[in-house]
Design brief:
Length: about 325
C-alpha cells in the first residue's frame, strides 16, 4: 500500500466539488498493473462525470479522469506482455486524476518511442474518437462535404485534419472569429461562427440547398435540431457529445421526411475488444507519425489546479487539447 495524491469528488456538482487529496493506492491485484502517471488527459467528458450528467451514479468518493500516460511500476499476478518500466497509455478507465493508480493490464497500450507522453495525454482519447467517427461509424468518402461542430475543440481539430486527409470538404462551426481563423489554417474549407447569425442557412447556402450527408455534433442541446435541418436525404446525424447539454426529446417522426438516421455513440463500444483497441491505437499513431494530424498542447495544468482546469474547459476560451501534470 502506498500513498498518492488524487483529485476526487465527494458529491456531484460544479468545478468546486473537485478536491485535491491523499489516498491509499493498493498493490495491483490479479491481471492488474500499478502505474505511475507521467501525464494525464483532461477531457470534456470529465465535466459530465463531475456533474453526473450521464446519470451513471458511480459510488462516491470517486477519482475523476479517464485517460492517462505513465510507467508500469508493479505487476499483479497473471500479467503477461508488460514489464516494470514499460511506457503505457490508456483510456476509458475512471480514476486517472492521480499520481499513481492500479488498472487492468488488458487495457494498456505500450506507447511507441516516437510518441511523447504529452502528445499521448493530449490526444489519445480524442484521436481514437476521431478514428471511429470518421472511419467506422460514418466512413468519410473522397469529395464528401461534412459538417463538424466545435471544430476548434480538442476532438474537433483532429477531426478537421483527419477528415481533410480522407478527402472530405469540411464545414466547421466554432465559437469565435479567432477560432475560425485557427480551423481555416488546419484545412477547414468553410469555418462558420455559429454564435453569430443563422448557421443552418449558411450550411444550406454552401451546399447549394443539398445539405450534408453527415453532421458530427458534439455540442448537443443548442445545435442538434439545426444539425437535422442541415442533412441531405438519408443523412446521418451523429450526436457524440453534449457540451451545451443533452439533446432534448423530439418526435421520431421528425426523421421521416428525409429518411434520416441518428446515432448517439461512445468510444467505449468501439474499443471494447482488445483487437479494436489495438487497431484504433495503431491507426491514430500512424497519422501522428505521418504528420497528417498535429496536436499541439493548448494548455497545461498541475493536478492540484483541476478546479481552474475544469472552469477553463467549460469557458469555451480554450482551443485544442489539454494536459495535466501529476
Ligand atoms: N462519444 C464519444 O465517444 C466521445 C469521445 C470523446 C469526446 N467526446 C465529446 O467530444 C466533445 C469534444 O471533447 P473535447 O474534450 O475535445 O472538448 P473541446 O472540444 O475541447 O471542448 C468543448 C467545446 O464545445 C464547444 N461548446 C459549444 N457549446 C458549449 C457550451 N455551452 N459550453 C461549453 N462548451 C461549448 C466549445 O467550442 P466553441 O466555443 O468553438 O463552440 C468548447 O470548446 C465533447 O462534447 C466530448 O464530450 C465524445
Amino acid at each position: 500500500m502506498a500513498k498518492t495524491k488524487v483529485v476526487r469528488i465527494h458529491k456531484f456538482g460544479g468545478p468546486e466539488v473537485l478536491k485535491y487529496e491523499d489516498m491509499d493506492v493498493a498493490n495491483p491485484g490479479k491481471d492488474e498493473v500499478l502505474i505511475r502517471h507521467t501525464a494525464i488527459g483532461l477531457n470534456f467528458v470529465d465535466t459530465y462525470h463531475r456533474s453526473n450528467q450521464l446519470g451513471e451514479n458511480p459510488p462516491l468518493p470517486c477519482v475523476l479522469g479517464v485517460q492517462g500516460v505513465g510507467v508500469v511500476e508493479k505487476l499483479g499476478a497473471g500479467v503477461n506482455g508488460l514489464k516494470k518500466g514499460d511506457r503505457i497509455t490508456y483510456t476509458g478507465l475512471r480514476g486517472s486524476y492521480a499520481e499513481m493508480r492500479t488498472a487492468p493490464a488488458s487495457r494498456m497500450i505500450k506507447l511507441p518511442r516516437d510518441i511523447s507522453d504529452d502528445l499521448a495525454a493530449a490526444a489519445y482519447l480524442r484521436g481514437l474518437t476521431a478514428n471511429y467517427l470518421l472511419r467506422r461509424l460514418h466512413k468519410v468518402q473522397e469529395g464528401e462535404m461534412i459538417l463538424i461542430h466545435a471544430a476548434a475543440g480538442g476532438v474537433g481539430q483532429i477531426m478537421v485534419q483527419w477528415g481533410k486527409a480522407l478527402g472530405a470538404n469540411i464545414i466547421g462551426t466554432v465559437g469565435s472569429d479567432a477560432k475560425a481563423k485557427l480551423v481555416a489554417k488546419l484545412g477547414c474549407d468553410f469555418p462558420l461562427v455559429y454564435t453569430k447569425g443563422n448557421w443552418v442557412e449558411k450550411v444550406m447556402e454552401i451546399t447549394e440547398g443539398k445539405g450534408v450527408p453527415v453532421v458530427y455534433d458534439s455540442v448537443g442541446k443548442t445545435t442538434f435540431m439545426g444539425s437535422l435541418d442541415c442533412l441531405s436525404p438519408m443523412g446521418h446525424a451523429i450526436n457524440y457529445g453534449t457540451a451545451s447539454g443533452p439533446v432534448e426529446p423530439f418526435p421520431l417522426q421528425r426523421l421521416h421526411k428525409k429518411s434520416l438516421t441518428v446515432t448517439r455513440p461512445t468510444l467505449a463500444t468501439y474499443i471494447a475488444s482488445r483487437s479494436d483497441l489495438e487497431a484504433a491505437s495503431n491507426a491514430f499513431f500512424k497519422v501522428l507519425r505521418e504528420g497528417t494530424v498535429e496536436v499541439p498542447v493548448a494548455g497545461r495544468y498541475k493536478l492540484k489546479d483541476m478546479v481552474k482546469a475544469h472552469k477553463d474547459l467549460e469557458s469555451r476560451k480554450i482551443a485544442g487539447a489539454l494536459v495535466v501534470e501529476p
